[in-house]
Amino acid sequence: MATQLKIDFVSDVSCPWCIIGLKALEQAIENIGDEVAVEMHFQPFELNPQMAPEGQELFEHLAGKYGTTKEQSKQNKENIRARGEEVGFTFRMDRWIRIYNTFDTHRMLHWAALEGRQSELKHALFERHFSAGENPGDHDVLVAAAEEVGLDGARALAVLQSEAYAADVRERQEFYHNQGIHAVPSVVVNDQHLIQGGQPAEVFEQALRKIAAQ
Hints:
Largest sheet: 4 strands, mixed
CATH topology: Glutaredoxin
CATH superfamily: Glutaredoxin
Number of strands: 6
Strand order of the largest sheet: 2-1-5-6
Oligomer: single chain
């Protein structure tokens, strides 16, 4: 009988290491196969909650927030591109040039979870941001992504034009912040085991097998 594992994947769509970590985690789960039955939930984390809706140029943002030089930024992007390629995700560095506010993104993902399409929407938004260079907080982008994964576009727009799920997103963010999570991706297994960072698939696999064996 398969061991039940509940996984809360705390992340932001504007975080490149989050999609790298997610793809590696999914590969690990596939490698383990029928030994585990995984219940996955995506939890909100805003990397830049004060970011203006129009966003900020990527290098300008990194230089201001982390003191990153242009050479360091170029090398970091190449490392991200290469890691993405390893896990089967395409980063278009010529298109990924801005950082955006993602609060509405998380509201849409919360709604998608209620509709049974959260995982599909999460992947679609990662692709739209990092592969197509789109703003994941833009309402037109969010509605189009929702329709792409089988959600109702009119209902998606209605959610975005209201304050629906804003309190839920803030509550979830505060909960994980109070649990000591200040960086993403953070993978919480069965509400007690924490795996942090965009780890390789083999690291996730080893950790999940160990947890399942307990």
